[in-house]
Amino acid sequence: MAERPYVLLSCGMSIDGYLNAATDTRLLLSNDEDFDRVDAVRAGCDAILVGAATVRRDNPRLLVRSAARRAERVSRGWRPSPVKVTVTAGAELDPCAQFFTAGDTDKLVYCSSPAVENAEKLLGHAATLIDGGEPVDLSWMVADLHERGIRRLMVEGGGTMHTQFLTADLADELHLVVAPIFVGDSRARRFVSDGRFPWNPDRRATLAEVRQIGDVVLLRYALSARFGST
Ligand SMILES: NC(=O)c1ccc[n+]([C@@H]2O[C@H](COP(=O)([O-])OP(=O)(O)OC[C@H]3O[C@@H](n4cnc5c(N)ncnc54)[C@H](OP(=O)(O)O)[C@@H]3O)[C@@H](O)[C@H]2O)c1
Question: Does the beta carbon of 57 lie inside 6 Å of ligand 1?
Fold first, then answer.
């Protein structure tokens, strides 16, 4: 089996398991202290991945915010922020999105085969386009990331990405932050959708840590024998 990076999934959700509101308004699930914790986790990773829908909807920068952490990375000979990675089938992404424009770091777009040609025209100047099959095969993708030197990968959503990493048993660790709110609208995106998850009544995940961070709680799960190895 091909080697793959250590994969850490990170997300914030409401008490009723939603990642965002159903409306266009962005829902604040974290607090300042927790954003800083996430920043520290980012700073320790080689790459951060989000799905294309998150790039479109949230327009995230995906950079390390703390100047001290950026300086620490540079002192190790790394770029100030991790490589950015996204996955898309349709490649309907705006080259002006902050995913592409923010930060001095590599951007990788794993694209379904039929859209690669168009994606190259649209995004080729802003990112490295990689043909990932149809649909993009995540097992192959993580092996390819490993070949590109990525040893620690942080997956920051959305739900489609989390579902695929979990059901494919490609995750080593999960950071789940529960915010003290309800969304109560099933049109909103849940943390995961339906699927066959390797963790079930016969194979329970290991709860490695519970930490209160202001008004949110971090649940940290060990999902593989590699937990904590890097
Ligand atoms: N609370 C949090 O921590 C958090 C974090 C991140 C996101 N979010 C929220 O999550 C929501 C977005 O989640 P989502 O589940 O709708 O979308 P997502 O996981 O961000 O992205 C899904 C998209 O990724 C592409 N994709 C995924 N798997 C693929 C594969 N195997 N092959 C090819 N393309 C693939 C497709 O892109 P194309 O459509 O381009 O083909 C698909 O539509 C947003 O509301 C966002 O705000 C919340």
Answer: yes
Instruction: Locate 62 and state its tokens.
Output: 């995906």
**Is the CB–ligand 1 distance for residue 50 below 6 Å?**
yes
Report yes or no: 183 and 21 within 8 Å, Cβ to Cβ. Answer: yes
**Nearest residue CA, atom 37 of ligand 1?**
88
Any ligand 1 atom below 6 A from CB of 86: no
Neighbours of 127 (CB within 10 A): 22
Q: pLDDT band at 1, cuts 50/70/90?
A: low
Q: Quick: pLDDT tens for 195-221.
A: 999 999 999 999 999 999 999 999 999
